[in-house]
Design goal:
Strand 3, helix 4 and strand 4 form a beta-alpha-beta unit. The chain is 40% helix and 13% strand. It has a six-stranded parallel β-sheet, sandwiched between helices. It is an alpha/beta fold. The protein has seven helices and six strands, in the order E-H-H-E-H-E-H-E-H-H-E-E-H. Helix 1 packs across helix 2 and helix 3 runs parallel beside helix 4.
Amino acid sequence: MWTFAKRKAPMTRGDFKKLPRHVAIIMDGNGRWAKKHKLSVALGHRQGTETLREIIRHTDDLGIEALSIYAFSTENWNRSKEEVAALMQLILDFFASEIDELDAKNVRILILGDKSDLPAKQREVLLQAEERTGGNTGLKLNIALNYGGRAELANAARELAMLVQSGRITPAMIDEKTLADHLYTRGQPDVDLMIRTSGEMRLSNFLLYQCAYAEFLFPTVLWPDFSVQDYDEALIAYGGRERRFGGRLK
């Protein structure tokens, strides 16, 4: 059984200069971690889930408003049948083991992506999780499954086109807020901090609209080895940045 190394005590909210309202994470490196340890890719993903549990708990403890994680993209269906099957099983295992704690901690779960293409059992579990936690008012946990940023924008465009066609709105009424209100993350703040582990430096079609003014960090650590201490260091780095939103430094 692979376990985490002993770590320092996690930081608390008062230890940070400032915290983001919305953190997004591309959990990259499970496969490379498995190869490094001469294990199957499935075990790499499973160890990555252990990391995810700790990061969710710490995010909630810090009082951060929203956490978005990239769990399965629309392109991931192109991976081997064995790897896809392992990822689908992890969906069931994760919610079976975590839903009670997440609900008890007032976490609201929202699935970003097209659930209709997922297997029936997984789709049912996800719908139940969303329904069960729908009234919760704590951390918004956005889990991107069968998700693509371009597909999200196309879906929003279709919804707006239908509203125009029905006469409920006019083209002139469509502005940035109107578009944002038709994204999966409607009602949530834009991403403040995007973290991608393993050293890769690309968005991979994740939250394209929401990341317009996000700060980016690309730690080289592989996701299964990404510790709470690594996360705290990323949050400290975010707190030291001057966000200008197109303006100039003061």
